[in-house]
Amino acid sequence: MLPDAHNTKRNNESLQSVERTIQHARCTLTYTHATLLLEEGIEREVVQKRLGHASRASSYFLLKQDERAIEDYNQAIKIDLNDGYAYYWRGQAHSQLGNSAQSAKDLAKAEELEYEPD
Fold first, then answer.
1. For the whole model, what pTM was predicted?
2. H/E element, 16
3. What is the CA radius of gyration of the chain?
4. In a domain? residue 118
5. 117 lies in a domain?
6. Domain CATH code at residue 17
7. Could you give the 3-state DSSP secondary structure of residue 97?
8. Residue 60 forms part of a structural domain
9. Is residue 73 a contact partner of residue 90, using CB atoms and an 8 Å limit?
10. For residues 47 and 78, is the Cβ–Cβ distance under 8 A?
């Protein structure tokens, strides 16, 4: 028995609907995956930037270039307001410059953030 034209048309429409649903699901998964990868990349970039500023600041600190160290610690803190390391070492740099009030403020913030130097 041959299928009638009406059933064939209905089957084709159903198949097309299923194909559109599958395509939509693939696109949704692709965009979701891409979004997650981008978010991860942005987070990684932010962490790398913060670490870059903090590392360079530490080098400046060791070279006794305290003003430059403070500038980089400021950038690290701007990226992450909870960076106890940057607060602590910025406080040390301020101390070396004789800025005791700012030093005390930064050291207190580092302590509040539970940062302890090794």
1. 0.67
2. helix 5-62
3. 29
4. no
5. no
6. 1.25.40.10
7. coil
8. yes
9. yes
10. no
- Determine the residue type at 110: A
Number of domains the chain contains? 1
Q: Which of 100, 49, 51, 93 is nearest to 71 (CA)?
A: 93
CB 55 within 8 A of CB 73: no
Does any domain span residue 25? Answer: yes
Class of residue 99 by CB neighbours under 10 A (exposed 0-12, middle 13-18, buried 19+): middle
Enter the tokens of residue 111.
Answer: 């302590």
- Token pair, residue 79, equals 């990226």
Q: Single out the residue of 65, 72, 53 nearest to residue 97, CA to CA.
A: 65
CB under 8 Å to 107, separation ≥6 — which residues?
87, 88, 91, 92
Domain enclosing residue 13, as ranges: 5-112
- Per-residue pLDDT of the chain in tens (118 residues, 90 and over written 9): 555 656 666 767 777 777 777 777 677 767 676 677 767 776 788 888 888 889 999 999 999 999 999 999 999 999 999 999 999 999 999 999 999 999 999 999 999 999 998 8
Q: Is the Cβ–Cβ distance between 54 and 72 less than 8 Å?
A: yes
